[in-house]
Amino acid sequence: MxxxxxxxxxxxxxALICPRSQTVLQYDAERQELISTTANLAYPIRNGIPVxxxxxxxxxD
Length: 61
Description:
The protein is mainly β. Helix content is about 0%, strand content about 30%.
């Protein structure tokens, strides 16, 4: 049986900023990531919790 991950609380997005660029983030629901276009990084959301560590972030193409 596949477990469905918890939904990300979009209200949390208002309080989060990119640790590198200090700018607002965009929520990508399909990929479960928070996107920083300024820093060119995508921070993963795991089990409904944003992982805001640069070494865990994916570099955007």
